[in-house]
Amino acid sequence: MNRIDGLLSRMTLAEKLGQLTMTASSYAVTGPVIAGDSTQSIIDGTIGNLLNMVGPGPTHEMQRLAVERSRLGIPLLIGLDIIHGHRTLFPIPLAEAGIFDEAVWERTAREAAREGAADGLALTFAPMLDVSRDLRWGRTAEGPGEDPWLNVRIARAKVRGFQGADLAAADALAACAKHFVAYGPVAGGREYAAVDISERTLREVHLPGFAAAVEAGVATLMPSFTDLNGVPMTAHVPLLRDWLRGAHGFDGVIISDYHAIAELINHGVAADLVDAAVLALKAGVDIDMMADAYRHGLPVALEQGRVSMDEIDACVRRVLRLKEQLGLFDDPYRRGAQAEAPAVIAERHAYARDVARKAIVLLRNELRNESRNESRNALRNERETLPLPSSVKTLCVLGPLADAASEMKGPWWGAGEHEPHVSVLAGLRAALPDVDLRHAPGVAIDDADDGGIAAAAALCDGADAVILCLGERATMSGEAASRAHPGLPGRQQALAEAVIARAHAQGTPVTVILFSGRPLVIPWLADRADALIAAWFLGVEAGHAIADVLTGQVSPSGRTTMSWPRALGQVPIHYAQRPSGRPMNPADYYTSKYQDVANDPLYPFGHGLTYGRFRYADLRVEPRNVRRDDVIDVSVELRNDGTREAEETVFLFVRDKVAQVTRPLLELKGYAKLKLAPGQAGRARIELPAAELAYLGPDLEPVFEAGEVEILVGPSAERAGLLAETIALLE
Ligand code: NOJ
Question: Does the pTM of the predicted model rise above 0.90?
Answer without folding.
Answer: yes
